[in-house]
Structures are given as C-alpha cells and as structure tokens.
Write a structure and sequence with these properties.
Layout lengths: L4 H5 L3 E6 L3 E6 L4 E5 L4 H5 L2 H5 L2 E3 L4 E4 L4 E4 H5 L8 H10 L2
Antiparallel strand pairs: 1-2, 2-3, 4-5, 5-6
C-alpha cells in the first residue's frame, strides 16, 4: 500500500499528543498518525510540559514546539522522515539546557 503525494500534501493536523515513546497527530480527515519519539530527539529529551506546549500552524501543515525549538511538517511525518538535526547541533542544544 502506498500513500500518494496528494494525500501527504493535503494532510492537516488538528491535534497533537506526545506520549512516553510516540508522537500522535490527529488529522482533520479523521486519521491519526504516529511516529516513534526517538525519531525527534528534541521531543524525546523535552519535559512533559514542553512537549504539551505546541502550536499547529500553516493551516495544520506544521507543528511547532516553541520551548524546544522544534518544527515538524505533517507531510514529513506521513512520509516517515526523521529529524534532520545533526548530532553536533543536538549536542549543543542539550548542553544549552543545563
């Protein structure tokens, strides 16, 4: 089974939930998609209250966590794209949180 690029580009988030080890995105068309939290290190390392503070922007195409400086696209999550952050950048970010 494959997902067309039209389905991916037209998917819009209406709610987000970050659980212990997974990210769940509820779409306006009724689907719920999920991805392993380990794919997004800033979410993985974030505190519960930081994970819970998100903004759905761009008509539901983007999800932004201001306290974690993390931005994801719904299309990227649907396509199975992991964080593109380099290990060096993540290391610097983690060090800045101490």
């Amino acid at each position: 089974m494959s997902i067309s690029s039209v389905e991916i580009s037209e998917a819009h988030a209406q709610n987000v939930e970050v659980r212990e080890d997974s990210l769940f995105v509820e779409l306006v068309d009724g689907r719920t998609i999920s991805a392993p939290l380990a794919w997004y290190p800033r979410l993985w390392h974030g505190a519960d209250q930081e994970r819970a503070h998100f903004e759905i922007i761009g008509d539901g195409s983007y999800i932004h966590w201001p306290n974690l400086d993390e931005d994801l696209t719904v299309a990227g999550i649907l396509a199975g794209r992991r964080s593109g952050e380099s290990p060096e950048s993540l290391k610097e970010w983690l060090a800045s949180r101490k």
